[in-house]
Specification:
CATH topology of the largest domain: Glutamine Phosphoribosylpyrophosphate, subunit 1, domain 1
Largest sheet: 7 strands, antiparallel
Bound molecules: iron/sulfur cluster
Strand order of the largest sheet: 3-2-4-1-10-9-11
Shape: elongated
Distance between the termini: 14 Å
CATH superfamily of the largest domain: Aminohydrolase, N-terminal nucleophile (Ntn) domain
Radius of gyration: 23 Å
Number of domains: 2
CATH class of the largest domain: Alpha Beta
Number of strands: 23
Helix content: 25-40%
Number of helices: 16
CATH architecture of the largest domain: 4-Layer Sandwich
Amino acid sequence: MAKRTVSKPDWTANPGERPQEKCGVFAVHNYTGPDNAAVVTYHGLLALQHRGQESAGMAFCDQKGMQVIKNMGLVDQVFSRRELDAIIAPSIIGHVRYSTTGSSILANAQPLIARSYNQGGIALAHNGNLTNTRRLYNKLLDEGQIFHTTSDTEIMLTYLFRYRRSGLAAAVNKTMRLIEGAYAAVVMDDHQMVAFRDPNGFRPLAIGRLGQASVFASETAALDTVGADFVREVEPGEIVTAGPEGLNSLKTMPNEPCQSICIFEYVYFARPDSILKNRNVHAVRKMVGSLLARRIPVTALDMVIPSPDSGVSAAMGLAESLNLPLEWAVHRNPYLGRTFIEPTQSEREEAVRLKFNPIRNLVNNKKVVVVDDSLVRGTTSRIITSLLKTCGAAEVHLCIASPPFINPCYYGIDIPVAAELAAMNDNADRLAESIGADSVTFAEPADLYRAVGMDQSKLCTACFSGSYPALNLLTGK
Ligand code: SF4
């Protein structure tokens, strides 16, 4: 099915709160193993911590009805062992969240729950970003709906709650015909859990088996962590129900869905030990690195240095192909936070400077290649290049294991506005000059398609190509 270019989604017309998020979902259904389900969910969420560090939460149904425990902070800051032991429920939905600064508030932390005093409740955890939020929000407001959050997830929750009387899977099916954009989500009521994924399949969602229990996780690495066996992925457009009778599948699309897996999951976002569409993420990144080796315009180099830690897999592939030593010549202080969420450019630069320190003796008088997975604002590359030169590096060549990032993402990855994207208006030579490097080499899109083993028609590549996938294949809009 052809992809098309679309205008930006309606919610971004609102200059205030913008519900963009990149998150992790972990859920376990009907767990009866040696730990309690809350401890399993806790470990699953820890494994997905890289997908969101602002808040964490778990929802479960006990004798008091649907409950949620959530707070701002990392998973181990939000939950104590005592709290986990007090959760008596075999089925739990968990979530870790990252959002833009403005919407980083407790009300938006997930899972979200909706309850009525006599008809039970539902809980929802969502990874992705809806693109017709404003339209649905205004419609629901006109109908008298009251909102408690500024998150697009609450719009999904509202429809799921309205339609739940015909069954949770039917409610998901109806809701999927209204919402557009990216969603990999799990919803639960007091007897059933339903996982569902948008027809494009932007965000990943894996199914696992842990004894008798079913597990859903944003990445297979979380299944490995809790000792669950990987069963398969929730397919794009699929609704998977976990109930007393086991797993059931409902396909919403009459034909093969037009999958548009986010290529950025392979490039940067997913853990290297995860598997997406049968491809190990580390292997993909390493192969891109080895393909990138053919594009470097210089010879007689001395070493390859990974940009810590995002460039490690690609640097391994590049070093192997060029038969050069791979040196961990830039140390990263792991106790400083992620720098790209710092609010101003100067604060961001200062944070990067504090974070990295080259090993002077290793790089002095050497011609080095620094490998990173992507170039977004260029801050990290600029500072690392400058630090290496200060430590005496004779030449610093930058290799980026993805094509230039030139468009914003509307599907759940928080990327700076276009004006802040380093590669927006510059060719590689001007970019090298502005970064202070001797050269900048990008991977070609074809390198990525080859490494992931899929052609462009099966991937979302909009942040590189500007070709945004169709928004709702169920409605044809
Ligand atoms: Fe991924 Fe880029 Fe598409 Fe967003 S626009 S889903 S980051 S490929």
